[in-house]
From TrEMBL:
<feature type="binding site">
    <location>
        <position position="199"/>
    </location>
    <ligand>
        <name>Ca(2+) 2</name>
    </ligand>
</feature>
<dbReference type="InterPro" id="IPR019794">
    <property type="entry name" value="Peroxidases_AS"/>
</dbReference>
<feature type="binding site">
    <location>
        <position position="95"/>
    </location>
    <ligand>
        <name>Ca(2+) 1</name>
    </ligand>
</feature>
<dbReference type="GO" id="GO:0046872">
    <property type="term" value="F:metal ion binding"/>
</dbReference>
<feature type="disulfide bond">
    <location>
        <begin position="127"/>
        <end position="330"/>
    </location>
</feature>
<keyword id="KW-0408">Iron</keyword>
<comment type="function">
    <text>Removal of H(2)O(2), oxidation of toxic reductants, biosynthesis and degradation of lignin, suberization, auxin catabolism, response to environmental stresses such as wounding, pathogen attack and oxidative stress.</text>
</comment>
<dbReference type="InterPro" id="IPR002016">
    <property type="entry name" value="Haem_peroxidase"/>
</dbReference>
<feature type="binding site">
    <location>
        <position position="77"/>
    </location>
    <ligand>
        <name>Ca(2+) 1</name>
    </ligand>
</feature>
<dbReference type="InterPro" id="IPR033905">
    <property type="entry name" value="Secretory_peroxidase"/>
</dbReference>
<dbReference type="GO" id="GO:0140825">
    <property type="term" value="F:lactoperoxidase activity"/>
</dbReference>
<feature type="binding site">
    <location>
        <position position="168"/>
    </location>
    <ligand>
        <name>substrate</name>
    </ligand>
</feature>
<dbReference type="GO" id="GO:0006979">
    <property type="term" value="P:response to oxidative stress"/>
</dbReference>
<feature type="site" description="Transition state stabilizer">
    <location>
        <position position="72"/>
    </location>
</feature>
<comment type="similarity">
    <text>Belongs to the peroxidase family. Classical plant (class III) peroxidase subfamily.</text>
</comment>
<feature type="disulfide bond">
    <location>
        <begin position="78"/>
        <end position="83"/>
    </location>
</feature>
<keyword id="KW-0349">Heme</keyword>
Length: 334
């Protein structure tokens, strides 16, 4: 059957649209949109990525908990005054010493990478770029897909522990989570995608045990917890037990990066309250369904979307040009 001229036109338009969409995705990965770009150190420090990767790989092989620690560190850094390595600065009233960052780990990995980079290309690579690369490498080393990291950030000059009050919290409602992400230019899909980083790592019993025994002063557990999952959590975190004991955020996937986190949410196996609400609230549930490939929903591929969202988050309030500095050591302002 001969194709009509109208059909040919529609087919051509469809091909042009697909090409434009693919080009936009590639450009989105190549340039961060915040003054950063892939290949920023191509002529000034060409070995930067291999040096950071080597430091992260050695650390994760020795201690797998370093991987989720570095990923969380980048997230926490970007949410406070932008991705500027302010979380790395030592001091009694800095972000690093504040309560929400008390359980972060991997600071020594950033310091090790910086030390090597200062020998290879002194005064060139920022601590904030090292952290962005280390977060990506942590995902790859635990089985996730890689992505190109736009670089060119400069390091911040301010670090206040009081600013950590703006971090997303373990008991935030969905509306509060949405607002905190929106304040950083991140939408609901970004929220659901980035929280999927909880597919690796653990939480202390202190962060969620209230859900197991006396949720909202009801003397009952959180109804979002699957009754068949409750005994497992109670065995790990008995009432009045060790509040510092660590429990996998994604049951069965503590050291393996993948989309199983969303399946656990669907079946009422979310460990912390803010994660569990991603399924119980319809505003975010529709995105969880897309990651799970629900029929009738346009599917999302977690590995692809996570890289995209990390690039977007990595350009939150970036300092470049004459703003900020390139620290000589990551733990102190020059």
């Amino acid at each position: 059957m001969e194709v009509s001229s109208l059909s040919k036109t529609l087919i051509l338009l469809g091909l042009l649209l697909a090409t434009h969409t693919n080009l936009a995705l590639v450009q989105g990965y190549q340039g961060g949109g915040g003054g950063t770009r892939v290949g920023f150190y191509k002529s000034t420090c060409p070995g930067v990525e291999s040096i950071v990767q080597s430091a992260v790989e050695s650390a994760v092989q020795a201690n797998p908990t370093i991987a989720p620690g570095l990923l969380r560190m980048f997230f926490h850094d970007c949410f406070i005054n932008g991705c500027d390595a302010s979380i790395l600065i030592n001091g009694p009233s800095t972000e690093k010493s504040a309560g929400p960052n008390a359980f972060l780990r991997g600071f020594e990995v950033i310091d090790a990478a910086k030390s090597k980079l200062e020998k290879a290309c002194p005064g060139v690579v920022s601590c904030s770029d090292i952290l962005a690369l280390a977060a990506r490498d942590s995902v790859v080393l635990t089985g996730g897909h890689s992505w190109k990291v736009p670089l060119g950030r400069r390091d911040g000059l301010v670090s206040r522990g009081s600013d950590t009050a703006n971090l997303p919290a373990f008991n935030d409602s969905i509306s509060v989570q949405i607002k905190k992400f929106a304040d950083k230019g991140l939408d609901i899909q970004d929220l659901v995608t980035l929280v999927g980083g909880h597919t690796i790592g653990t939480a202390a019993c202190a962060v969620f045990s209230y859900r197991l025994y006396n949720f909202n002063n009801t003397n009952r557990p959180d109804p979002d917890i699957n009754p068949s999952f409750l005994p497992q959590l109670r065995a790990l975190c008995p009432n009045g037990g060790n509040a510092l004991r660590r429990v996998a955020l994604d049951t069965g996937s503590v050291n393996s990066f993948g989309g199983s986190f969303y399946a656990n949410l669907k079946y009422g196996r979310g460990v912390i309250e803010s994660d569990a609400k991603l399924w119980s609230d319809p505003t975010t549930q529709r995105f969880v369904q897309r990651f799970l490939g629900y029929r009738g929903r346009h599917g999302l591929i977690f590995d692809v979307e996570f890289g995209r969202a990390m690039v977007k988050m990595g350009n939150v309030e970036v300092k470049n040009g004459k703003r900020g500095e390139i620290r000589r050591v990551c733990t102190a302002i020059n």
